Amino acid sequence: MKRSLVKMVISLLACGTGMLHAQDFPSRPVTLYAPWTAGGPTDLALRALAEATFKPLGQRVLIENKPGAGGAMGATAVAPLRPDGYTLTQLPLGVFRLPYMVKTSFDPIKDITWIINIAGYEFATNVRSDSPWKTWDDLVAYAKANPGKISYGHPGVGTSPHLVSEDLGNRLGMQWVHIPFKGSAEVITALRSGQLQAIATSPPWALVRSGEIRPLIMWGPERSPKAPNVPTLKERYGIIANSPWGVGGPAGMDPKVIKVLHDAFRKAMDDPTLHKVLDSVNMEVYYMAGDAYQQWARNTLLEEKKNVERLGLTQN
User: Fold this and answer.
1) Which of 67, 72, 255, 314 is the most exposed place for a label (fewest CB within 10 A)?
2) Given this model, what pLDDT does residue 130 score?
3) Is residue 79 within 8 Å of 248, Cβ to Cβ?
């Protein structure tokens, strides 16, 4: 009887402490993991988001880079942490794929609180402007005639650039070699130095404008106004391959803390500077939250399982 009473008292005290923490949240800076290398498109977008979130949140959002595992290192690192709202991570689509490809320490649904979706990537297949392939058809024809002679880079195994490129290879009979990196910044550097013949990533528009890199085919639902003469995968094959990303934390976060974070990020999404940065890295605002976001996460986990199995990339 006494033990039961003691447990009850401890439980009530813990609940009371949690309520006080939730009421005071945030009382210090919040850390947001960027699961990519510094200087890449997502890193730039997250830093702009962090800056835009400062005023509505009332505390700084500090970016910490944790590259690797196709963008899933953030989820790996945040899942076992205390769900107090002070450590969050960017959540790309790779989070849904990795558990089917390798053994992971987290479950995307059970171990993550899905707070808010912020934006979506738009990707392209890109080459150096001095390459012999002036069009997508040129690249496809060469790859089919010269199996294994083209190496393309992407920002990590299990990312959308990786899976879509492998799918295209299977569909079109292209035997090209994929080279994984830890983020888009490294991929672009490798292309510029001549280590790769092509890359699958968000187009580096500054380098496109300077004439150094040329996108051959865009992956979004329509042609980009930045490259109106470049065709899309949708036009050629009926494929749309944009890639939503959001912010989340450990499972079990207090609903009041979730609301504070959601509302701050939602206000930040209206920031003109953030929009300018997103536009520069070929991303668009894409809002999802609450039950709709949670359901999207569950559905996406099932869909990505099918995609990984179809490409023969499941773990043995």
Assistant:
1) 255
2) 97
3) no
Q: What is the pLDDT of residue 242?
A: 80
- Residue among 138, 75, 123 nearest 243 (CA): 123
Query: Which stretches in the chain have pLDDT values below 50?
Result: 1-4, 6-11
Do 296 and 243 meet the contact criterion of CB atoms below 8 Å apart?
no
Given this model, what pLDDT does residue 13 score? 53
**Which token pair is 201?**
């990533």
Residue intervals of the chain classified under CATH 3.40.190.10 are: 124-237
Cα–Cα nearest to 266, from 91, 58, 115, 86: 115
For residue 143, what are its two tokens? 């790859």
Compute CA distances 107 → 72, 96, 97, 228, 264, whole Å. Answer: 11, 9, 11, 41, 26
Q: Which residues of 41-56 are buried (b: 16+ CB within 10 A; e: fewer)?
A: bbbbbbbbbbbbbeee
Give the max Cα distance, the chain: 82
Contact 176, 202 (CB under 8 A): no
Q: How far is CA 95 from CA 16, 170, 174, 197, 199, in A?
A: 34, 23, 27, 28, 21
Tokens of 160: 């959308």
Tokens found for residue 110: 């059970």
Every domain range in the chain assigned CATH 3.40.190.150: 27-120+244-310
8 phi and psi angles, rounded to 5 deg: -65, -45
The CATH fold of domain 27-120+244-310: D-Maltodextrin-Binding Protein; domain 2 (3.40.190)
As a whole number of angstroms, the distance between CA 65 and CA 36 comes to 6
Contact between residue 278 and residue 106 where contact means Cβ atoms under 8 Å apart: no
Supply the DSSP symbol for 71.
G
